Each structure stands twice: as structure tokens, then as C-alpha cells.
């Protein structure tokens, strides 16, 4: 797999980079023709830091945020975002103590927060952070969960997003479909690659790539 991965750097910050690989892959909600490897920005502290800095610029001067809800192993980026949003004395969150939390996901795909973390959601303004958004279904589940526990969602950020809006909110990302012009996602029942007889290569999710 590694030899097929190609580096892609963000136009917002050249140190923020992901890797992409073309093929036929299945996510939880769709089939895609490009696998986006987020290991570098999610696991290496410097790359996570510059990614967080780029994502934070949209909110630093104008968006009060109490909690960052991290999906798909983005906690490292979330922690650096909290630092970026609170360290500048010009920032609206300057000097505050932003919570950085991750919901549990049960066997049915429902997201939940344990009792000890619900206080970080109830009455709080939450930013949802994820690695990639294709259809937006997972983000909608996360929004429902935050609302259920009494919070509000004020912003959505992703490393990569194929959509500009989700649930009426702008999606802030450092990579978009413009950076990967050949990127395409299909519902399983309408997958062009399946119709052409192209076999699935792997299952992909926030944890990575599993070859079939």
C-alpha cells in the first residue's frame, strides 16, 4: 500500500499534509474512489499542531467555544486547537479552559457521553472535529448526540471535507474536493465502480485501511 500513497500538502499551510491513494474503497456510509490517509496529521505532534493552527484561524477572533468534540482519532489535533484558541490575548476564548472530549460509539453506531463528561456538553458550545467528511452522516449523528445531552453545535471542522455545509453549518477544512478533483463518493447501491465490475480493495474508516 505505502508505495501507492502520494503526498498532498495544504495550500493553507505546507507543513500540513495528508496522503492519498486512488482505488475502490468502502466506508461506513459510502464507496469512494480515493483513500485519504490521515496518519501524519493525527499521530505526529508537529503535523497535528500546524493542522490545528490552520483550522483554528476561522474561529480565533469570533467564535466562543467551550468544548471540542473529537471524532475518528482527532484528539491530538483537538488539543492543539484548544491551545491555539486560548493562547492569544486577542482571541475570544483567551484564558478559557476548553474541554476536548471523544464520544463513545456503541454497537449500533449511536454516540454517547458518560456521566462524568456530560457536564462538558450540557449548556456548552461545541465544535465538532473530524478527519474527513464525505456524506456528512456521521456529523449528523454527532450533532444529534450533542443536542441530546443539552449542548449546541456552533462549528464543524475537518481535515478534509467533500462538502461545504452540513446541517446548515459551514464546514471548515484545510483540504477540500478542489484539492482532489478526481475524488468521488457513491451510495453503495449506486456505485459506478461496482457497476463496472471493479472489486473493492479495502475497508476504510477513521482508524485507517484494512485490505480485503
Count of extended strands: 14
* Most strands sheet: 6 strands, mixed
What is the string of helix and strand elements?
A: EEEHHEHEEEHEHEEEEHEE
> What is the count of structural domains?
1
Estimate the strand proportion: 25-35%
Q: What is the 3D shape?
A: globular
Structural class: alpha/beta
Residue windows where pLDDT falls under 50 for at least 5 positions? none
Number of continuous helical runs: 6
Oligomeric grouping of the chains: single chain
Average of the residue pLDDT scores = 92
CATH topology: Rossmann fold
Note the main attributes of this structure.
212 residues; alpha/beta; Rossmann fold; six-stranded mixed β-sheet; 24% helix
Structural notes for this entry:
This protein has helices at 39-43, 45-56, 75-87, 115-118, 137-148, 192-195; strands at residues 6-9, 17-26, 31-37, 67-70, 99-101, 104-105, 111-112, 125-133, 152-161, 165-166, 169-176, 185-186, 202-205, 208-211. Helix 2 crosses helix 3. Strands 1, 2, 3, 12, 13 and 14 form a six-stranded mixed β-sheet that branches. A six-stranded mixed β-sheet has the order 5-4-8-9-11-10, sandwiched between helices. The chain is α/β, with parallel strands linked by helices. 38% of the residues are buried. The radius of gyration is 17 Å and the shape is globular. The chain has one domain (2-211): Rossmann fold (3-Layer(aba) Sandwich), CATH 3.40.50.
What's the quick description here?
By secondary structure, the chain is α/β, with parallel strands linked by helices. The protein is built from six helices and 14 strands.
Amino acid at each position: 500500500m505505502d508505495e501507492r500513497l502520494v503526498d498532498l500538502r495544504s495550500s493553507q499551510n505546507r507543513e500540513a499534509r495528508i496522503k492519498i491513494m486512488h482505488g475502490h474503497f468502502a466506508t461506513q456510509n459510502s464507496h469512494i474512489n480515493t483513500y485519504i490517509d490521515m496518519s501524519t496529521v493525527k499521530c505526529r505532534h508537529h503535523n497535528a499542531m500546524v493542522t490545528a493552527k490552520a483550522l483554528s484561524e476561522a474561529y480565533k477572533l469570533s467564535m466562543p467555544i467551550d468544548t471540542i468534540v473529537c471524532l475518528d482519532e482527532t484528539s491530538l489535533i483537538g488539543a492543539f486547537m484548544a491551545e491555539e484558541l486560548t493562547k492569544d490575548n486577542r482571541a475570544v476564548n483567551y484564558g478559557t479552559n476548553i474541554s476536548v472530549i471523544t464520544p463513545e460509539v456503541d454497537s449500533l453506531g449511536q454516540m454517547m457521553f458518560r456521566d462524568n463528561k456530560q457536564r462538558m456538553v450540557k449548556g456548552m458550545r461545541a465544535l465538532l472535529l473530524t478527519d474527513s467528511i464525505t456524506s456528512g452522516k456521521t456529523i449528523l449523528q454527532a450533532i444529534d448526540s450533542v443536542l441530546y445531552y443539552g449542548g449546541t453545535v456552533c462549528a464543524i471542522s475537518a481535515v478534509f471535507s467533500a462538502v461545504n455545509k452540513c446541517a446548515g453549518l459551514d464546514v471548515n477544512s484545510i483540504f477540500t474536493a478542489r484539492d482532489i478533483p478526481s475524488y468521488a463518493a457513491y451510495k453503495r447501491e449506486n456505485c459506478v465502480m461496482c457497476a463496472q465490475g471493479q472489486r473493492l480493495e479495502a475497508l476504510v474508516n477513521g482508524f485507517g485501511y484494512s485490505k480485503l
